[in-house]
Design goal:
11 helices, alpha/beta, about 15% strand, Rossmann fold, five-stranded parallel sheet, single chain
């Protein structure tokens, strides 16, 4: 088996999957150093910078670069590929083409068509990017926590990859907990920690993730406690990657906290959530009625989101 100085692994990695990683590791085992070159174009559904970042995280022991065509300054001794039609790259660079046998029944085109079917062939940063994220939010004592956990339980019962469905809990204590005493400076900290927990769960879970509140909800809770907006919290919310917000209506739900202001503020909170969800263009479903009706409406909204998929098939199909 030949050994090489500098090996090149070119590809779109759109998205990267187990077959790609086998290719990179094979090149790493046979070369002194390896460059992975991620090709990109304006037609790609997944941003080039994201794919470069994913490959750098997954393969920290190689150099990862991106662009439209490889033109590195260093001589390439071998081009590693699993494609029978990729010899031209090697010829152009004056390098030997090394064909690597496929060991995984997966292709990027298949993943783009149905990520769920190939979920176990994806690494954590890719799963986090493709996970559909659903937030349950609402005024205090409107059943947000109950609903978030009920949804996670519902999808876990589907089995298979869905058995890993996660629910991200609300920050300790909760915004609406009796006796809660929060300062303005607490909210960016809570929002950031909530976002970090969400990201951790998305990397480890199923194709759908349920969140009991999020950074956007924290912006409304800041208004509820202080009467003003929090630019720092709003900035964190603006970088969120959620896809659907389920608002638990206050009507028909008895207050459980026993606090006299609860009944007065819950209608205001519901209205404020609705206003800001609409103003910011967030996809929303309002859950009303008893718990069983709310759960059925929530499942219908989530199933509709999942049926749409992550919209990765807008680009022309490719063989890999």
């Amino acid at each position: 088996m030949n050994r090489y100085g500098h090996g090149l692994v070119p590809g779109r990695f759109h998205p990267p999957h187990a077959g790609h990683h086998h290719l990179v590791r094979t090149a790493r085992d046979r070369c002194e150093r390896v460059t992975v070159f991620v090709r990109g174009s304006s037609l790609d559904a997944l941003p080039l910078e994201d794919r470069v970042a994913w490959m750098r995280e997954i393969h920290p022991d190689v150099l990862v670069a991106g662009g439209t065509e490889y033109a590195g300054p260093e001589r390439v001794d071998a081009v590693f590929t699993a494609q029978p039609y990729a010899d031209e790259t090697g010829r152009r660079l004056g390098a030997e083409t090394v064909h690597v046998d496929r060991t995984h029944p997966v292709s990027s085109a298949a993943v783009r068509e149905d990520p769920t079917a190939f979920w176990d062939f994806l690494e954590p940063p890719v799963r986090a990017a493709l996970t559909r994220r659903v937030v349950v939010l609402g005024a205090e004592s409107t059943g947000t926590t109950t609903m978030a956990h009920a949804l996670a339980d519902h999808y876990r019962r589907r089995g298979g990859v869905w058995a890993r469905t996660r629910c991200v809990p609300e920050y300790e204590g909760g915004f609406g907990a009796p006796g809660t005493d929060l300062r303005s400076s607490d909210f960016p900290v809570i929002a950031q920690r909530q976002a970090e927990r969400e990201e951790e769960a998305a990397r480890d879970g199923s194709p759908v993730l349920f969140c009991d509140t999020d950074a956007f909800a924290a912006t409304i809770w800041h208004e509820r406690y202080t009467g003003t907006t929090s630019p720092a919290t709003c900035e964190i919310a603006a970088h969120g990657r959620q896809h659907l917000w389920l608002l638990t209506d206050h009507r028909g739900i008895a207050s459980e906290d026993g606090l006299p202001y609860g009944e007065q503020l819950r209608p205001w909170m519901t209205a404020r959530f609705l206003t800001q969800l609409a103003h910011t263009g967030r996809r929303t479903a309002v859950l009303t009625g008893p718990h069983e009706e709310r759960l059925a409406a929530a499942v219908a909204a989530v199933d509709e989101l999942l049926a749409e998929g992550p919209h990765l098939t807008d680009t022309p199909p490719e063989r890999r």
